[in-house]
Amino acid sequence: MVTLPKIRFNRQEFSGAFGDIGTDFPLIVAMIIAAGLHTPSVLIIFGLMQIFTGYFYRMPMPVQPLKAMAALVISQKIAGPVLMGAGLAIGVVMLILSVTGILDKLTRFIPKAVIRGIQLGLGISLSLLAFKEYIPADHLPGYILAGFSFLIILLFIDRKKVPAALLVILLGMLYAFIFKIDLAVLPATFGINFPVFFIPSIENIATGFVLLALPQIPLSLGNSILATKQVSADYFPERTDITVKKIGTTYSLMNLVSPFFSGIPSCHGAGGMVGHYTFGGRTGGSVIIYGLMYVSFGLFFGNGFHEIIKAFPLPVLGVILVVEGLSLIVLVKDVVSDKRGFVIAILCGLMAFGLPYGFAISLIVGTAIWYSPLKLTALSGIGSEKS
User: DSSP letters of 271-291?
Assistant: First the structure.
């Protein structure tokens, strides 16, 4: 029987709490705007799901927006009721996959090299997103802010007494209060808010399943379930109780509850766990702290969220995102000694990053190559010949 660790709320957990904000925060804001969502509901429910997983797992098992769904909602401005229906639909699908044991079979079937490739592709995607959109957002002042943030992380990332992510977030807030936030408006943003109850219709569920859930399922299988299980094994090898069935079950439960309170569909994620761990999170404390931030914003500042978001400048979020991305990329190191596995990991990473529905394609193609008689002789021999 595995002894669950105690939940801590020390400086390192506070630092780790901000390890995934660069991914989550911009997506949540964009989804609220594009789909016309009820802001307090989204923030409160998202925060409560973080608190639930932090307490349940006693490790930095964070909750993230479903990225494929988010991209479609933002780009096509799909309405909130359809999004809620999609959340309920994918919750049912993931529950079936979990209780039937299909997820367990996938874990045994899909090779580690493919999972590392998916993580590599995700890491490249996050890093380039940060450099293309987040860091340049405020032009020259943003570059300067990002430069100082990078310097702080480089100096303090390994110092337990001085939490790097917390310092960077505080620097960003100082910048925002000086250049962006109208302090006179802040008192008017305060108010008590609660989630809005909502029942998705059959039409919402059916439409959401076709438009949003189907494109999301392959990404969820690859990153939210299998890759998250792999990262858990990497960082917490003693936690033998963390199985894909457990991860899939909590994934499904979150999405079977959230839509009824106007919350966005959510999942677990390898990148989120890497982000929390990189910046100091070792127990569920970092995830609970992170969740409390969203609950507080939703309960008390949901009506003025447009001002609150300015406290987290995009250049700072971009720096955190780059560190999270790089931490994912370096995980590929443990397949370097296996030439064939390394080539497959690189190939999967490039497909995951560069192709439409790349995560699904890399999962299928990479696994097929692994089990095929193809030996990749030409590629795996690269660098082995003497020049």
Answer: HHHHHHHHTT--STHHHHHHH
pLDDT in tens, 35-53: 999 999 999 999 999 999 9
204 vs 202: CA distance, rounded Å: 5
Alpha carbon distance 78, 74 (integer Å): 7
SS3 63: coil
Q: CB of 123 within 8 A of CB of 328?
A: yes
Residue 242, phi then psi, degrees to nearest 5: -85, 105
Cα distance from N-terminal residue to C-terminal residue, the chain: 54
Dump strand ranges (E) for 253-352: 266-267
List the chain domain ranges. Answer: 11-379
What confidence tens digit (pLDDT) does each residue in 51-89 have?
999 999 999 999 999 988 988 888 788 999 999 999 999
Enter the tokens of residue 24: 């989550």
Q: Kindly report the number of other CB atoms within 10 A of residue 157's CB atom.
A: 16
The phi-psi region of residue 160 (left if phi > 0; otherwise alpha if psi is between -120 and 50; otherwise beta) is alpha
Angstrom distances, CA of residue 195 to CA of 238, 298, 299, 301, 306: 38, 9, 9, 13, 18
